[in-house]
TrEMBL record:
Glucose-6-phosphate dehydrogenase C-terminal domain: residues covered: 177-448
Role this protein plays: Catalyzes the oxidation of glucose 6-phosphate to 6-phosphogluconolactone.
Active site: H228
Stated name of the protein: Glucose-6-phosphate 1-dehydrogenase
Pathway: Carbohydrate degradation; pentose phosphate pathway; D-ribulose 5-phosphate from D-glucose 6-phosphate (oxidative stage): step 1/3
Gene3D superfamilies: Dihydrodipicolinate Reductase, domain 2 (3.30.360.10), NAD(P)-binding Rossmann-like Domain (3.40.50.720)
Gene designation: zwf
Length: 457
């Protein structure tokens, strides 16, 4: 497919996300020949200096293709009150790209700054002929999300708005759909009769890594639970769509979110890692949560009664993105002891950049007696498809925006429904309990799944 040339306007161009994901992602797409001709205009309140200094600050000097790509990068300061210089720069860049050029505006800014920026895009004309990408969180609660939505609608058509939840861009998250719907094997057991629990577990070893002000204003519940973890839950739990179209996927996912029972406050645990308050930029009496674990239920015909356990946090004992589906016990115990008393069969999806899918099953241990142990079947995607290069989540999503494909983005309805679910917890949050760095969270969270515990940890 040929994409038209693009002027990419990136707000937050000197921020963490731009440096860690967006620029490296654009460069890799460029090197892979997947990008059309582009001009990238970084913007923000504070100029990082000359264009050369801006480019150097991105930290990709010496990387393959960087010099060629970087020559397409400039920085133009702007703010919510005045976008006139930026608008001029966009028009000039567009003229340089010739007929048919399009605009992609990427807002990697805090939720409080978004609405003002959107108005500026409308007033300055930058929004014309553009697609808009928003970074989560989309608002900070239902009310502000609605307000943002209303403001967006004044400037953009819904089909030109792309709300990024980058977990949906992960190859391995899309693999949940492939596994379920491209095989006849799993879907018949994908229900309450055969599944006794689901764990969606995203522990991270990193602390806040210079993102103190983001963490202090957002917290882990808004950053990860109301977005990434619930989106994964949506993919695991949704009903088969008739076709894999964006409309139908969004509709099915939304139906799942509508079926989620209001969260039981006694089954939500907030934690804060020991030493968080001493981090630079953190209030020394901060109660912000750097960890959340909770139990959710999807009250529909398929899932009624099956606990979905969600957990994520910073400064934990491992970095994983693990979805575990625990299957029902066999009708009878026919063998003696051993593994039969341990965890049941589990399907385990590792949603990392090197995705694997494992099925842990009970099997006979080799030797003279009929003893049952736990064995593992393993699918390694990189090994199965050695000639196919995976795309990192942001690469895939940036490309999808340019293609105009909204499948892997989140819809307003989904976002609003998730706030509806999350608002009561945020309005009256449980006290954050301290947990040791390198642990798997406070004791109460470890107990959440019952005696079986968490698979990871
Ligand atoms: C981001 C969160 O959206 O996702 C971060 O803001 C988190 O706090 C990150 O660390 C995890 O993403 P990934 O791609 O490393 O799984």
């Amino acid at each position: 497919e040929t994409l038209p040339p693009y002027v990419i306007v990136l707000f937050g161009a000197t921020g963490d996300l731009a440096r860690r994901k967006l620029f490296p992602g654009l460069l890799r797409l460029w090197n892979a020949g997947l990008l059309p001709e582009v001009r990238v205009i970084g913007s923000g309140r504070h100029s990082p200096g000359t264009d050369e200094e801006f480019r150097a600050g991105i930290g990709l000097d010496g990387e393959k293709g960087w010099e060629e790509f970087a020559s397409r990068l400039t920085f133009v300061p702007s703010n919510a009150d005045d976008g006139s210089d930026l608008a001029r720069a966009v028009r000039e860049a567009e003229d340089g790209l010739g007929d048919g050029a399009r605009r992609l505006v990427y807002l990697s800014v805090p939720p409080g700054a978004m609405l003002g920026m959107v108005r500026m895009l409308g007033d300055s004309g930058i929004a014309d002929n553009s697609r808009l990408v928003l970074e989560k969180p989309f608002g900070t609660d239902l009310e502000s999300a609605r307000e943002l939505h209303a403001g967006l609608q004044e400037v953009y058509r819904e089909r030109d708005i792309f709300r990024i939840d980058h977990f949906l861009g992960k190859e391995s998250v899309q693999n949940i759909l492939a596994l379920r719907f491209a095989n006849g094997l799993f879907e018949p057991v994908w229900n309450r009769q055969n599944v006794c629990y689901v764990q969606i577990d995203v522990p991270e070893e990193i602390g806040i890594e210079g993102r103190a002000s983001f963490m202090e204003s957002t917290g882990t519940f808004r950053d990860m639970i109301s977005t990434h973890l619930f989106q994964i839950l949506g993919f695991v739990a949704l009903e088969p769509p008739v076709h894999v179209t964006p409309e139908q996927l969004h509709e099915e996912k939304e139906k799942v979110f509508r079926s989620v029972r209001p969260l039981d406050p006694s089954r939500v645990v907030f934690g804060q890692y020991d030493g968080y308050r001493d981090e630079d930029g953190v209030d020394d009496a901060s109660t912000v949560e750097t960890f959340v674990a909770l139990e959710a239920f999807v009250d529909n015909w398929r899932w009624h009664g099956v606990p979905f356990l969600l957990r994520t946090g910073k400064a934990m004992g491992a970095t994983r993105r693990t979805v575990t589906i625990g299957f029902a016990e066999p009708a009878m115990r026919m063998f003696d002891g051993g593994a039969e008393h341990g965890p049941p069969s589990e399907l385990v999806l590792e949603l990392t950049d090197d995705p694997t899918i494992e099925l842990d099953v009970r099997a006979k241990v080799p030797g003279p007696s009929l003893r049952i142990g736990r064995g593992r079947m393993r699918l390694d995607l990189a090994e199965s498809f050695p000639d196919d290069e995976p795309l990192e989540a942001y690469e895939r999503l940036l490309l999808d925006v340019m293609r105009g494909d909204p499948t892997l983005f989140t819809s307003t309805n989904e976002v609003e429904r998730l706030w509806e679910l999350c608002d009561p917890v945020l309005a009256d949050p449980p006290p954050s309990q301290t947990y040791a760095r390198g642990s798997f969270g406070p004791a109460e969270a470890l107990e959440l799944p019952g005696p079986r515990g968490w698979r990871v940890g």
